[in-house]
Amino acid sequence: MNSRERTKELVKRQGRDWALPSHLAGMQGGEVVRSLRAECYPDRLILPSSNTGPLEIFGLATENIDSATLRLATSLRDRIDRWGPALPGARWKPRLEVLVHPGGEVRFNQLQTLMTGSGIDVVGRSAR
Q1: Which residues contact 12 (CB under 8 A, 6 or more apart)?
Q2: CB 126, CB 97: distance < 8 Å
Q3: pTM of the predicted model, to two decimals?
Q4: For 97, what's the count of Cα atoms within 13 Å in the CB-facing half-sphere?
Q5: Using CA atoms, how far apart are residues 48 and 92, in angstroms rounded to an integer?
Q6: What secondary structure does DSSP assign to 50-118, as a single string?
Q7: What is the rounded distance in angstroms from the CA atom of residue 96 to the CA atom of residue 98?
Q8: Radius of gyration over alpha carbons of the chain, in Å?
Q9: What is the chain's pLDDT, residue by residue, as a tens digit (128 residues)?
């Protein structure tokens, strides 16, 4: 399966580090923290455009948070896969930094819970 075909498959909540690219999942070594940014609103999650991916919006009004989180995790996996290697003897430790907009606190808490065990730390800060 080539990289393009794999990126079309949604991640599955199975095993440890389930949202990481397969070459990073379970990898040992020192951790190099690298952040990804997102925004959380009551009705949507947003991944801003970056050098590793386009702007992506995950609507929460038309689909449930579980499905939206799996699509978000898949996009995160694909972006992380484009990072290349970390330092010699080290591995990437992705962190999703979420700007939580007013009214989005419940959705953020759901996101944080649903990303448990994904291999991606989810931290939030208020947009207020």
Answers
A1: 18, 70
A2: no
A3: 0.88
A4: 9
A5: 20
A6: BTTB--EEEESSSS-HHHHHHHHHHHHHHHHHTT---STTEEEEEEEEEEE-TT-HHHHHHHHHHTTTS
A7: 6
A8: 14
A9: 444 444 468 999 998 999 999 888 877 888 999 999 999 999 999 999 988 889 999 998 766 889 999 999 999 999 999 998 888 888 999 999 999 999 999 999 999 999 999 999 999 999 87
